Amino acid sequence: MKKRLWIALFLLALIGSVVVSANGTNKPKRVNPLCTAAHLTWLAQADLDRQITLMQQAGIQWVRLDFAWFDMEMSPNVYTFSEYDRIVTTASAHGLRVIALVTQYGIPPFYRQDTTNWMSPPANPQDYQTFTQALATHFRGRIQLYELGNEPDLDWAWPPAANVAAYSALLKAGYQGIKAGDPRAKIISAGLSNVNPEPFVQGMYDNGVKGYFDYLGFHPYSWPRSPDDTVNAMQFGRLARLRQIMLSRGDHKQIMVTEVGWPTFSGGVDEQTQATHVKRIYQKIEYEDYTYVPIACIYDFVDDGTDTTNAEDNFGLLRFDYAPKPSYATTSAVRADYNAHFTPLNP
What we know:
347 residues, alpha/beta, 40% helix
Protein backbone atom coordinates (compact mmCIF):
# COMPACT_ATOMS: atom_id res chain seq x y z
CA MET A 1 0.00 0.00 0.00
CA LYS A 2 2.79 2.40 0.92
CA LYS A 3 4.57 1.55 -2.31
CA ARG A 4 1.44 2.34 -4.38
CA LEU A 5 0.94 5.62 -2.51
CA TRP A 6 4.56 6.57 -3.15
CA ILE A 7 4.17 5.78 -6.87
CA ALA A 8 0.95 7.82 -7.06
CA LEU A 9 2.59 10.80 -5.38
CA PHE A 10 5.58 10.52 -7.70
CA LEU A 11 3.30 10.50 -10.77
CA LEU A 12 1.36 13.53 -9.52
CA ALA A 13 4.59 15.42 -8.98
CA LEU A 14 5.82 14.42 -12.43
CA ILE A 15 2.57 15.56 -14.08
CA GLY A 16 2.74 18.85 -12.19
CA SER A 17 6.27 19.49 -13.37
CA VAL A 18 5.25 18.78 -16.96
CA VAL A 19 2.35 21.25 -16.66
CA VAL A 20 4.60 23.93 -15.22
CA SER A 21 7.16 23.32 -17.96
CA ALA A 22 4.47 23.49 -20.62
CA ASN A 23 3.08 26.71 -19.20
CA GLY A 24 6.55 28.20 -19.12
CA THR A 25 7.36 27.30 -22.72
CA ASN A 26 3.92 28.34 -23.96
CA LYS A 27 4.35 31.95 -22.97
CA PRO A 28 4.14 34.08 -26.13
CA LYS A 29 7.48 35.28 -27.42
CA ARG A 30 8.16 38.98 -27.69
CA VAL A 31 11.01 41.44 -27.34
CA ASN A 32 11.43 43.02 -23.92
CA PRO A 33 9.85 46.42 -24.68
CA LEU A 34 11.41 48.47 -21.88
CA CYS A 35 13.67 51.21 -23.23
CA THR A 36 14.74 54.64 -22.15
CA ALA A 37 16.39 57.42 -24.11
CA ALA A 38 19.36 58.88 -22.26
CA HIS A 39 22.13 61.43 -22.56
CA LEU A 40 25.23 59.54 -21.46
CA THR A 41 28.13 60.92 -23.47
CA TRP A 42 30.97 62.56 -21.58
CA LEU A 43 29.53 61.76 -18.15
CA ALA A 44 32.09 61.04 -15.47
CA GLN A 45 32.40 57.28 -15.08
CA ALA A 46 30.79 57.43 -11.63
CA ASP A 47 27.70 59.12 -13.07
CA LEU A 48 27.61 56.75 -16.03
CA ASP A 49 27.79 53.76 -13.68
CA ARG A 50 25.08 55.25 -11.50
CA GLN A 51 22.65 55.88 -14.34
CA ILE A 52 23.21 52.48 -15.95
CA THR A 53 22.82 50.75 -12.57
CA LEU A 54 19.56 52.60 -11.93
CA MET A 55 18.31 51.52 -15.36
CA GLN A 56 19.19 47.92 -14.59
CA GLN A 57 17.46 48.10 -11.22
CA ALA A 58 14.31 49.45 -12.90
CA GLY A 59 14.23 46.48 -15.26
CA ILE A 60 15.04 48.53 -18.35
CA GLN A 61 16.49 46.42 -21.17
CA TRP A 62 17.38 48.99 -23.85
CA VAL A 63 19.03 52.39 -23.77
CA ARG A 64 18.83 54.66 -26.82
CA LEU A 65 21.42 57.39 -27.16
CA ASP A 66 23.00 59.66 -29.74
CA PHE A 67 26.14 58.39 -31.42
CA ALA A 68 27.29 61.84 -32.48
CA TRP A 69 29.15 61.65 -35.77
CA PHE A 70 31.16 64.82 -35.11
CA ASP A 71 32.49 63.21 -31.90
CA MET A 72 33.92 60.24 -33.78
CA GLU A 73 35.33 61.72 -36.98
CA MET A 74 37.33 64.85 -36.27
CA SER A 75 39.04 64.71 -39.65
CA PRO A 76 38.00 62.79 -42.77
CA ASN A 77 38.20 59.01 -42.38
CA VAL A 78 39.95 59.21 -39.00
CA TYR A 79 37.72 57.67 -36.34
CA THR A 80 37.81 57.77 -32.55
CA PHE A 81 35.23 55.51 -30.87
CA SER A 82 36.62 55.46 -27.32
CA GLU A 83 33.81 57.44 -25.65
CA TYR A 84 31.15 55.19 -27.14
CA ASP A 85 33.18 52.07 -26.36
CA ARG A 86 33.07 53.16 -22.72
CA ILE A 87 29.29 53.55 -22.76
CA VAL A 88 28.58 50.31 -24.61
CA THR A 89 30.94 48.38 -22.34
CA THR A 90 29.30 49.82 -19.21
CA ALA A 91 25.80 49.10 -20.48
CA SER A 92 26.70 45.55 -21.51
CA ALA A 93 28.25 44.85 -18.12
CA HIS A 94 24.85 45.60 -16.57
CA GLY A 95 22.87 43.55 -19.06
CA LEU A 96 21.57 46.52 -21.07
CA ARG A 97 21.55 46.69 -24.85
CA VAL A 98 22.17 49.85 -26.83
CA ILE A 99 20.12 51.43 -29.61
CA ALA A 100 22.56 53.68 -31.47
CA LEU A 101 20.94 56.82 -32.90
CA VAL A 102 22.96 58.24 -35.81
CA THR A 103 21.36 61.58 -36.58
CA GLN A 104 21.46 63.54 -39.82
CA TYR A 105 22.57 66.65 -37.91
CA GLY A 106 25.50 67.26 -35.61
CA ILE A 107 27.86 65.93 -38.26
CA PRO A 108 31.43 66.96 -39.11
CA PRO A 109 31.39 70.38 -40.79
CA PHE A 110 33.32 69.13 -43.82
CA TYR A 111 30.36 66.85 -44.71
CA ARG A 112 27.49 69.34 -44.23
CA GLN A 113 25.43 70.93 -46.95
CA ASP A 114 25.84 74.21 -45.06
CA THR A 115 29.17 74.18 -43.27
CA THR A 116 28.06 77.05 -40.97
CA ASN A 117 24.90 75.32 -39.69
CA TRP A 118 25.30 72.60 -37.02
CA MET A 119 21.88 71.17 -37.99
CA SER A 120 22.69 70.85 -41.68
CA PRO A 121 22.38 67.34 -43.17
CA PRO A 122 25.12 65.63 -45.20
CA ALA A 123 25.77 67.00 -48.66
CA ASN A 124 26.53 63.50 -49.96
CA PRO A 125 24.75 60.34 -48.70
CA GLN A 126 27.89 58.37 -49.58
CA ASP A 127 29.71 60.06 -46.69
CA TYR A 128 26.98 58.86 -44.31
CA GLN A 129 27.33 55.35 -45.74
CA THR A 130 31.08 55.38 -45.22
CA PHE A 131 30.73 56.51 -41.62
CA THR A 132 27.94 54.09 -40.71
CA GLN A 133 29.96 51.22 -42.17
CA ALA A 134 32.94 52.19 -40.04
CA LEU A 135 30.71 52.49 -36.97
CA ALA A 136 29.01 49.12 -37.46
CA THR A 137 32.32 47.43 -38.22
CA HIS A 138 33.78 48.70 -34.97
CA PHE A 139 30.76 47.68 -32.87
CA ARG A 140 30.02 44.45 -34.72
CA GLY A 141 28.21 42.05 -32.41
CA ARG A 142 27.99 44.66 -29.64
CA ILE A 143 25.19 46.87 -30.98
CA GLN A 144 22.09 45.18 -32.30
CA LEU A 145 19.93 48.14 -33.35
CA TYR A 146 20.79 51.36 -35.20
CA GLU A 147 18.34 54.22 -35.74
CA LEU A 148 19.21 56.27 -38.82
CA GLY A 149 18.08 59.84 -38.38
CA ASN A 150 15.86 61.82 -36.02
CA GLU A 151 12.60 63.56 -37.02
CA PRO A 152 13.72 64.46 -40.57
CA ASP A 153 10.08 65.27 -41.37
CA LEU A 154 10.46 68.54 -39.41
CA ASP A 155 12.15 71.59 -40.89
CA TRP A 156 14.32 72.25 -37.81
CA ALA A 157 15.86 68.79 -38.15
CA TRP A 158 16.54 69.08 -41.90
CA PRO A 159 17.21 72.73 -42.68
CA PRO A 160 16.21 74.67 -44.55
CA ALA A 161 13.15 72.41 -45.06
CA ALA A 162 12.25 68.74 -44.64
CA ASN A 163 13.00 66.79 -47.81
CA VAL A 164 11.63 63.26 -48.05
CA ALA A 165 13.61 62.38 -51.18
CA ALA A 166 16.87 63.51 -49.58
CA TYR A 167 16.14 61.62 -46.35
CA SER A 168 15.21 58.49 -48.31
CA ALA A 169 18.58 58.62 -50.07
CA LEU A 170 20.33 59.01 -46.72
CA LEU A 171 18.43 56.05 -45.23
CA LYS A 172 19.35 53.81 -48.15
CA ALA A 173 23.00 54.81 -47.82
CA GLY A 174 23.03 54.27 -44.06
CA TYR A 175 21.32 50.91 -44.37
CA GLN A 176 23.95 49.72 -46.81
CA GLY A 177 26.71 51.04 -44.57
CA ILE A 178 25.44 49.30 -41.43
CA LYS A 179 24.79 46.01 -43.20
CA ALA A 180 28.26 46.06 -44.76
CA GLY A 181 29.81 46.64 -41.34
CA ASP A 182 27.61 44.18 -39.43
CA PRO A 183 25.18 42.07 -41.49
CA ARG A 184 23.36 40.90 -38.36
CA ALA A 185 22.57 44.41 -37.08
CA LYS A 186 19.05 45.77 -37.59
CA ILE A 187 18.11 49.22 -38.85
CA ILE A 188 15.31 51.44 -37.57
CA SER A 189 14.36 54.27 -39.92
CA ALA A 190 14.41 57.74 -38.36
CA GLY A 191 11.87 58.25 -35.61
CA LEU A 192 9.33 60.53 -37.30
CA SER A 193 7.50 63.24 -35.41
CA ASN A 194 3.83 63.06 -34.47
CA VAL A 195 3.03 66.31 -36.29
CA ASN A 196 2.10 65.00 -39.75
CA PRO A 197 4.04 61.79 -40.42
CA GLU A 198 1.69 60.06 -42.86
CA PRO A 199 2.62 62.04 -46.01
CA PHE A 200 6.30 61.65 -45.17
CA VAL A 201 5.98 57.87 -44.86
CA GLN A 202 4.11 57.74 -48.16
CA GLY A 203 6.90 59.78 -49.69
CA MET A 204 9.53 57.46 -48.29
CA TYR A 205 7.89 54.51 -50.03
CA ASP A 206 7.52 56.57 -53.21
CA ASN A 207 11.29 57.07 -53.04
CA GLY A 208 12.00 53.35 -52.82
CA VAL A 209 12.86 52.80 -49.15
CA LYS A 210 11.10 49.44 -48.91
CA GLY A 211 13.80 46.91 -48.14
CA TYR A 212 16.14 49.53 -46.68
CA PHE A 213 15.03 49.32 -43.05
CA ASP A 214 14.07 46.56 -40.64
CA TYR A 215 11.72 48.65 -38.47
CA LEU A 216 9.92 51.94 -39.04
CA GLY A 217 10.71 54.54 -36.38
CA PHE A 218 8.06 56.81 -34.85
CA HIS A 219 7.63 59.23 -31.93
CA PRO A 220 3.95 59.08 -30.88
CA TYR A 221 4.02 61.91 -28.34
CA SER A 222 0.57 62.95 -27.13
CA TRP A 223 1.47 65.07 -24.11
CA PRO A 224 -0.12 66.46 -22.08
CA ARG A 225 -2.89 64.06 -23.06
CA SER A 226 -3.19 60.36 -22.35
CA PRO A 227 -1.98 57.73 -24.83
CA ASP A 228 -5.66 56.71 -24.95
CA ASP A 229 -6.69 60.09 -26.42
CA THR A 230 -8.40 59.70 -29.80
CA VAL A 231 -9.69 63.25 -30.33
CA ASN A 232 -6.62 65.40 -30.87
CA ALA A 233 -4.32 65.27 -33.86
CA MET A 234 -1.24 64.30 -31.87
CA GLN A 235 -2.21 60.91 -30.49
CA PHE A 236 -0.69 57.50 -29.91
CA GLY A 237 -3.27 56.04 -32.32
CA ARG A 238 -1.44 57.48 -35.31
CA LEU A 239 0.65 54.34 -35.08
CA ALA A 240 -2.30 52.51 -36.62
CA ARG A 241 -2.37 54.90 -39.58
CA LEU A 242 1.30 54.36 -40.28
CA ARG A 243 0.78 50.63 -39.99
CA GLN A 244 -1.97 50.79 -42.62
CA ILE A 245 0.27 52.75 -44.99
CA MET A 246 2.97 50.11 -44.59
CA LEU A 247 0.54 47.25 -45.19
CA SER A 248 -0.88 49.02 -48.24
CA ARG A 249 2.67 49.00 -49.65
CA GLY A 250 3.02 45.28 -48.95
CA ASP A 251 5.35 45.94 -46.02
CA HIS A 252 4.67 43.90 -42.87
CA LYS A 253 7.55 45.24 -40.78
CA GLN A 254 7.04 46.33 -37.19
CA ILE A 255 7.21 49.87 -35.81
CA MET A 256 9.65 50.95 -33.13
CA VAL A 257 8.61 53.74 -30.76
CA THR A 258 12.02 55.32 -30.27
CA GLU A 259 10.69 58.26 -28.24
CA VAL A 260 7.54 58.86 -26.21
CA GLY A 261 7.06 60.64 -22.91
CA TRP A 262 5.41 63.22 -20.70
CA PRO A 263 7.20 66.19 -19.10
CA THR A 264 6.34 66.84 -15.46
CA PHE A 265 6.01 70.62 -15.46
CA SER A 266 3.30 73.27 -15.44
CA GLY A 267 2.47 72.80 -19.11
CA GLY A 268 2.68 69.02 -18.99
CA VAL A 269 1.49 66.54 -16.37
CA ASP A 270 2.10 65.81 -12.70
CA GLU A 271 4.43 63.00 -11.72
CA GLN A 272 1.71 60.47 -10.88
CA THR A 273 -0.01 61.09 -14.22
CA GLN A 274 3.31 60.56 -15.98
CA ALA A 275 3.59 57.17 -14.28
CA THR A 276 0.04 56.24 -15.27
CA HIS A 277 0.66 57.12 -18.91
CA VAL A 278 3.98 55.24 -19.03
CA LYS A 279 2.24 52.12 -17.75
CA ARG A 280 -0.50 52.48 -20.39
CA ILE A 281 2.06 52.62 -23.19
CA TYR A 282 3.36 49.19 -22.28
CA GLN A 283 -0.12 47.76 -21.76
CA LYS A 284 -1.11 48.96 -25.21
CA ILE A 285 1.88 47.45 -27.00
CA GLU A 286 1.96 44.19 -25.05
CA TYR A 287 -1.73 43.34 -24.78
CA GLU A 288 -3.91 45.61 -26.91
CA ASP A 289 -4.02 46.94 -30.48
CA TYR A 290 -0.32 47.78 -30.90
CA THR A 291 1.45 44.45 -30.47
CA TYR A 292 3.36 45.20 -33.69
CA VAL A 293 5.47 47.61 -31.58
CA PRO A 294 8.36 45.59 -30.09
CA ILE A 295 10.05 48.37 -28.09
CA ALA A 296 8.96 51.72 -26.65
CA CYS A 297 11.69 54.13 -25.48
CA ILE A 298 10.57 56.52 -22.77
CA TYR A 299 12.09 59.96 -23.23
CA ASP A 300 14.08 60.34 -21.14
CA PHE A 301 15.78 58.77 -18.15
CA VAL A 302 16.97 61.78 -16.11
CA ASP A 303 15.61 65.33 -16.19
CA ASP A 304 17.93 67.51 -18.28
CA GLY A 305 17.72 70.42 -15.84
CA THR A 306 15.74 72.08 -13.07
CA ASP A 307 13.78 74.77 -14.92
CA THR A 308 10.16 74.04 -13.99
CA THR A 309 8.88 76.10 -16.93
CA ASN A 310 10.88 74.21 -19.57
CA ALA A 311 9.46 70.98 -20.96
CA GLU A 312 12.86 69.65 -22.06
CA ASP A 313 14.13 69.80 -18.49
CA ASN A 314 11.35 67.61 -17.10
CA PHE A 315 10.80 64.45 -19.18
CA GLY A 316 12.85 62.18 -16.92
CA LEU A 317 11.86 59.08 -15.00
CA LEU A 318 14.30 60.54 -12.45
CA ARG A 319 14.68 64.13 -11.35
CA PHE A 320 17.89 66.01 -12.09
CA ASP A 321 19.33 64.91 -8.72
CA TYR A 322 18.45 61.25 -9.51
CA ALA A 323 15.53 61.22 -7.08
CA PRO A 324 12.96 58.82 -8.57
CA LYS A 325 9.60 59.93 -9.86
CA PRO A 326 6.69 57.44 -9.59
CA SER A 327 7.27 56.45 -13.23
CA TYR A 328 10.62 54.93 -12.26
CA ALA A 329 8.83 52.34 -10.10
CA THR A 330 6.37 51.79 -12.94
CA THR A 331 9.11 50.40 -15.17
CA SER A 332 9.98 47.81 -12.52
CA ALA A 333 6.35 46.71 -12.43
CA VAL A 334 6.26 46.49 -16.24
CA ARG A 335 9.41 44.35 -16.21
CA ALA A 336 7.91 41.99 -13.62
CA ASP A 337 4.80 41.66 -15.76
CA TYR A 338 6.89 40.97 -18.85
CA ASN A 339 8.89 38.29 -17.04
CA ALA A 340 5.70 36.63 -15.85
CA HIS A 341 3.86 36.56 -19.17
CA PHE A 342 6.39 36.46 -22.03
CA THR A 343 9.35 34.50 -23.30
CA PRO A 344 12.26 36.76 -24.36
CA LEU A 345 12.77 37.22 -28.09
CA ASN A 346 15.55 39.06 -29.88
CA PRO A 347 14.56 41.80 -32.34
